[in-house]
Amino acid sequence: MLLRNVFLLLLLVVAAASSSRADDGYRLWLKYDRIADAAPRQQYQRAAQFIASSGTTPGVRTAAAELQRGLSGLLGQAVPVVAAAGSRTGGIVLRVDAQASAGGQALKPEGYHIFSEKNNLVITGRTDRAVLYGAFALLRQVQTRQPLAGLNVTSNPRINFRLLNHWDNPNGTVERGYAGSSIWQWYELPERLDPRYTDYARANASIGINGVVINNVNASARYLSAEYLAKVAALAGVMRPYGIRVYLSVMWAAPKVIGGLNTADPLDPAVKQWWAAKSDEIYKAIPDFGGFLVKANSEGEPGPQDYGRNHADGANMLAQSLGRHDGVVMWRAFVYKANSNGDRFKEAYEEFQPLDGKFDPKVLVQVKNGPIDFQAREPFHPLFGAMPKTPLLLEVQLTQEYLGFATHLVYLAPLIKECLEADTYAKGPGSTVAKVVDGTVDHHELSGIAGVANIGADRNWTGHPVGQANWYAFGRLAWDHMLSPETIAAEWTKMTLTTEPAAVRTLTNLLEQSRSIYVRYTTPLGLHHIMGESIHYGPQPWLAKAGRPDWTAVYYHKADSVGLGFDRTAGGSNALALYKPEVQKQWGNAQTCPLNYLLWFHHVGWRQPLPTGRTLWNELCTRYYTGADSVLWMQQQWAAAKPALDPALYADVAARLQTQRKEALWWRDACVLYFQTLARQPIPAPLVPPARSLADVKNLVQLYQLK
Amino acid sequence: MLLRNVFLLLLLVVAAASSSRADDGYRLWLKYDRIADAAPRQQYQRAAQFIASSGTTPGVRTAAAELQRGLSGLLGQAVPVVAAAGSRTGGIVLRVDAQASAGGQALKPEGYHIFSEKNNLVITGRTDRAVLYGAFALLRQVQTRQPLAGLNVTSNPRINFRLLNHWDNPNGTVERGYAGSSIWQWYELPERLDPRYTDYARANASIGINGVVINNVNASARYLSAEYLAKVAALAGVMRPYGIRVYLSVMWAAPKVIGGLNTADPLDPAVKQWWAAKSDEIYKAIPDFGGFLVKANSEGEPGPQDYGRNHADGANMLAQSLGRHDGVVMWRAFVYKANSNGDRFKEAYEEFQPLDGKFDPKVLVQVKNGPIDFQAREPFHPLFGAMPKTPLLLEVQLTQEYLGFATHLVYLAPLIKECLEADTYAKGPGSTVAKVVDGTVDHHELSGIAGVANIGADRNWTGHPVGQANWYAFGRLAWDHMLSPETIAAEWTKMTLTTEPAAVRTLTNLLEQSRSIYVRYTTPLGLHHIMGESIHYGPQPWLAKAGRPDWTAVYYHKADSVGLGFDRTAGGSNALALYKPEVQKQWGNAQTCPLNYLLWFHHVGWRQPLPTGRTLWNELCTRYYTGADSVLWMQQQWAAAKPALDPALYADVAARLQTQRKEALWWRDACVLYFQTLARQPIPAPLVPPARSLADVKNLVQLYQLK
What we know:
2 copies of one chain form a homodimer. The first copy, chain A, has 707 residues and is of the alpha/beta class. Chain A contains 21 helices and 18 strands. Chain A has helices spanning 2-19, 38-47, 58-75, 128-143, 195-206, 226-239, 254-257, 269-285, 311-321, 344-352, 413-421, 433-437, 467-479, 485-496, 501-522, 554-557, 581-588, 598-601, 616-640, 647-679, 694-703, and strands spanning 51-53, 81-82, 92-96, 101-102, 105-106, 112-117, 120-125, 153-155, 161-165, 211-213, 245-250, 291-294, 328-332, 363-368, 392-397, 448-452, 563-564, 604-605. In chain A, helix 13 packs across helix 14 (485-496). Chains A, B: Pfam families: Glyco_hydro_67C (PF07477), Glyco_hydro_67M (PF07488), Glyco_hydro_67N (PF03648). Chains A, B: Residues 462-685 form the Glycosyl hydrolase family 67 C-terminal domain.
């Protein structure tokens, strides 16, 4: 009778627990559900009977707590934390050791070493942050079902500043955010600390992100006020035990707006003094404050050019304001003047390259992956390799501003990796963007990478569940840019979706293909910047008038009766000349230019045959059609994995894929119908011409532009 | 051994379940946790052994499913749904009966009757919606620990249209929303139906809300496009089984913006035809579509006056466009012209009262509770009682635009009730606003009430956990305006926070006092509209210049060296003359006017003695100080209930109360320091003058106004 009641109660409790456990995505990849298979679970249980940690610093305590939480969940049994292993074996030992090394090599301050010692697994490093990263690495081993026996792993981050940039506004909106409102609750801070902040910090620490710029680069001056610094300090207090430093985007005119000065001229003594005092004030409130990010003289933001000074004048004054504080200035190179006869491609280069060597040692120049603006595919930015005396911080975009918002499944690691692996030839072959950024090409001590966050207050953080993979992949690549997108996709899939091997293969392949597919149905062959005006939603290749010429589509695709594409060779804008000769050679000849970059650099005749055997027009149509149809394939792949997936999660993504299919057809129809008005050729058989008219599609696009 | 393993497993599962059960507020008042006390639980178990329902209509199926879910949770045992009770007793029987009556009275279509029959509890009504409301009423009985034995309850809604108005924009922001982004995911619709929509519908149905206007009254025309109607139809499909009809706010110029016409003149035949065709299109997609809400010629929105027509011309054309479809037009009376010498108080009256009798029978005129705009306290709107031939729909605001956003605990039922109970004397004493609105005074068949929703995508829906009480209270009052704020507060507290009797008393009292306290520290004695410009955050009584004179503060408080307050007597704007003589008498004499309304109607000398024995200046200071100090009392009350509260929820509100205290002091200091510059008198002892200066407070206010 007792037994029967217990079973009944058990059933009820299980039912209650599982109903509250429909996967709503909140836990991200930090899912510590009990491993169902007894055999591997027992193996892990034998290797993780306790956690020995004598550390009292926040990072080590965080590491021990996270290991306990994770292992207790995964192994289905409580794992105690003890002060020391003593004579016990079969446990995990956390050890901060200022002299820690691995294989005779000193570890970097954040690098960790996991190894076996006396039948225990030791996680060591020179700092408590290193041990924290090692703890998450160990959990990842278990989550991805890798063996622990004989584990010997050493890992150092290749890039020092691994940052998220939040484009979050003080009113709670997120510029280019598609996952709800900002997670920062400014009206509640500093009194209330949303528990979500801690989970955010855990997620970042688990993938090695060590800094967050919490506010939009189009910055409000208010963040530098005492009122807001108290709020920022409260957030920094949550981040600190997770090895994360807080940074602020600053509004250049802050000394005027909140400082009562009548100028923000960087060479004005009162301005210098104001910033120095402000830095002191900040560091008093936030001793580990990371520094400043600046968008100046760009898209209407104020900057030093308002006073006849240049970017270096501005950046250096700010860097010097930091004095002896341990902070940096990240100065964005995303600048472009309105010039209908120019080429926006060249403008950041022309403004910044001449300043190489003029920056203070505390300044990093932050450069987007490509020369325009986070398009689905861009050639690498010509500044990479062109400013050897300046550490360049790579900025990539995780929020899918130009990649389908939160309804298109696009795994971004291939995009980021394509940039990282691009060879600048700056110091001969092998001078990849990755090696420029990590400092090895030019021997910089400072190195950095930033991802524009795709995070919002949506329950699952990123809107599209697979957006989580982009947050994850960014962190992993920031730590180690040698990792492959496939490896990262498989890790994320196992930790987040399923460990069932066939499903993991299917889903990893789906993720890997997704970005190429997106490019195909939106901007094949090197097309770029043909999306909807202002909101950047859907296609608008016909856009010919906008607030600025370089905000139109025709500025970029230059379609006419002859052909399509932006001639950036010597016969055109000659933007190609910004690259090293080897790069020019690779892209400079329309006959040999890889098709993915063709229309970035060449104006190609509609009837020009391509290496595929098709004319440009026919190839263009073929790519739009096959791209859109590939979304059907994506739907099939997702469906194939269904048995291995949580039903709620499955339904969520399945529905988004339906929308993606609809919108892929929208892009296809809009682009082939519009370009057809210039190419004046039929949609090639066997492709079936769109059932709707160009006017239909234009109406639809216009609808989404309405107030 | 087996037993031991089972227990261990049980412990684990319970631990897992309870850890995922920290109260994050998502479940609102529909918490179906098992009743801990065995004795009452067993009593309920005996009365709810099964649910008998032969109904196959959506509403009855919804009712049966919700009862099953709720009772299974509350009673801790599965409650089966069967087709018929047969000879079984001790169950609950759902019965739709077109002839259902109670006590010899026919039920209204949505009214329910719960009674005992052959040892079963029968929930009956004329429609399946009625049975659904009865089911939620039964669950409420259990949740609030009321007995079921011998239950005999009849309840009819007093008002027919019980609506939420969402001020949600297509881009996902919510105008005057403080709980995150919109819950409507327009980019995902219609393919993806967020599970949250269903929980939203459940919550509304549980309190009798039967219609939702899903978009901002400052409306985008896009909602009337085929593309968006498909999305709206998908939402309507989720709402339908919960008895909820979907309505749209319409942009008056839609025939021009999306219809291709060159006018939106309501008397233009093409415009009429466009709207008629649009209505047909809507009803084809959404057969139970509720109708239109219109904000026209108000705050910059287009309207019939753009064509020399009046509000009735516009409303009637739209009503006639509905043809035989079962829908209504709700036309907002919230209009006011910029006039620095006028009195905004009078403007809606002056525009609408002369139109009484001119409206189509399908039109309701939607009137805010007060004449200005959702201030913390307003006299009732003078249109109530002044348009006997027109059904007036009462609009109240649940989102705390002027009541402290999501950091101030303000229970709004007393505010709403104050308006409902106000006597217009339209047809002699007892012609309360409630009876005007519910149609009994003027014998209208149509009756309606709307609450501007305080709902967003925050996990707990309303930002401040106690914001949920305002959603709840609105629904309950909309159903039965005779309920007391205290009764509703106690219900909500028991269902949402705790059933511990002492804590329920403490919390109910806290809720009841909260609005008076808010008034005291922000706008005592009838002050109004002295909040921060544009965002309406914090105090700004010194605001003298704005986009319009009636957006300043000085327009309303009229402080000068003589005194304070807006003279609306015959000697002033004479707005008082809009009311019936009995009302004029009540408010018209500064000596006898209730202090809560004093400065709404009188310019009172600073040194004028009030019935409290203090001068106006001293009374003003006293109220600001005691109001701000009452927040300390609120904190104490909340702390007193701590043992009965979920720890996460406790901490959340405790932190918000800290912010509330800080901001109450902000209001106090801003107001007494500013008014002191005109009153030129000291802060009366024993009150301690603010430590900060007026300049300090002004700087702080300005900070929150920055970009």
